[in-house]
């Protein structure tokens, strides 16, 4: 990640990181446009990663100190530095989950969650697996039987994933 950041230009199409999704390329280009140094870039990325994780743990954990201790000691903290793009995607999805937990309108909640997952999937494609979250929330509401659930979910996830893949690969 350091070499790609240092070698990148201000134009996201000129960045020699074709293997990366366009959201990450635009983040690199934005940081380079502002002449942000490498250490400040990592500080910005770690804010995107750690603040949502801390807020999520603070909201849903019974023992915040113990949860954060486990987070740091069992290797998840270290993964944030090696799996930078994946961790940024997780941070974006956690932010969307935290904001939607405060919403009362189910349609807005689902729409905002799908938007957050889409933004996260522009940073790393593995976030597409999280499209199952709104589907689970929807099926919980309508009381879909287990058999219909097993038949329907893989097709919906593949459909949504293919849409994101097509939009990410054409830019």
Describe the structure.
The model has no long low-confidence stretch (mean pLDDT 79). The chain starts with a helix and ends with a helix. With 171 residues, the chain is mainly alpha-helical. It has helices spanning 2-7, 22-33, 38-60, 64-73, 76-82, 84-100, 106-123, 132-142, 146-169. The protein is 75% helix and 0% strand.
Question: How would the blueprint of this fold be written?
Answer:
Layout: H1 2-7, H2 22-33, H3 38-60, H4 64-73, H5 76-82, H6 84-100, H7 106-123, H8 132-142, H9 146-169
Helix pairs in contact: 2-7, 3-6, 5-6, 6-7
Summing up helix and strand content along with how strands pair, one would put the structural category as: mainly alpha
Strand elements, count:
0
SSE sequence, one letter per element: HHHHHHHHH
Question: Taking Cα atoms only, what radius of gyration do you get, to the nearest Å?
Answer: 18 Å
Largest sheet composition = none
Helix content: over 70%
Low-confidence stretches: none
Proportion of residues in β-strands: under 5%
**Oligomeric description of these chains:** single chain
For the terminal residues, how far apart are their CA atoms? 21 Å
Shape: globular
Q: Mean of the pLDDT scores?
A: 79
| SS element count, helices | 9
In short:
With 171 residues, the protein is mainly α. The chain has nine helices and no strands.
What tags apply to this protein structure?
mainly alpha; 171 residues; single chain; 75% helix
